[in-house]
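Researcher: I'd like a candidate sequence for this fold, 196 residues long. If you have to choose between options at a position, lean toward the conservative one.
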């Protein structure tokens, strides 16, 4: 016969220990949130910057690489095709190999794809890297939401998802000024164009 944890302060669990009190559970969940949410928000901010930085780099990049508006538009949009096609497979992989490995895979690969943009010279290279970036970022947001369900019970998820979703606003507040700073102040650093 198994004892079900009811949340009553002195209910013994299966090992004969007293179940944690509501205050102890609240403290534990606050501690988990304090460790997970800032890191996940930071990752989302990076994902947002990787996704939209091409818009900030557009003018200088088109001029330097002699790309047309059509080349830019297709390259910017192909990201979402990769994202759409690989979002479900990415989340199936999350369920199969675990959140830590999947989120690590996603962040490392999108970082490498984003860094590789420095080497773009032709439209095909631009298309390929934007498509790969979409593939690699696919599953990040839903993966984080699923990951949070592993840590928080249903009655706590609205609050924790709300905290994570503040990353949308934070990304806009940080990403735009950061891109503006890079585009206006970093031309020629290490011999690179500002868009690089």
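Model: Candidate sequence:
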């Amino acid at each position: 016969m198994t004892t079900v944890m009811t949340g009553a302060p002195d209910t013994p669990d299966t090992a004969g220990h007293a179940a944690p009190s509501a205050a102890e559970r609240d403290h534990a969940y606050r501690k988990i949130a304090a460790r997970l949410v800032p890191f996940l928000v930071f990752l989302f901010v990076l994902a947002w910057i990787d996704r939209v930085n091409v818009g900030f780099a557009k003018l200088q990049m088109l001029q330097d690489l002699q790309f047309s508006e059509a080349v830019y538009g297709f390259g910017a949009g192909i990201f979402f095709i990769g994202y759409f096609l690989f979002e479900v497979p990415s989340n199936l992989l999350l369920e199969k190999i675990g959140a830590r490995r999947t989120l690590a895979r996603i962040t490392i690969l999108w970082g490498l794809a984003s860094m590789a943009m420095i080497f773009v010279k032709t439209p095909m290279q631009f298309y390929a890297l934007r498509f790969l970036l979409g593939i690699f970022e696919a599953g990040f947001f839903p993966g984080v939401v699923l990951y949070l369900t592993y840590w928080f019970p249903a009655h706590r998820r609205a609050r924790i998802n709300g905290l994570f979703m503040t990353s949308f606003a934070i990304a806009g507040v940080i990403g735009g000024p950061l891109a503006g700073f890079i585009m206006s102040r970093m031309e020629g650093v290490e011999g690179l164009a500002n868009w690089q």
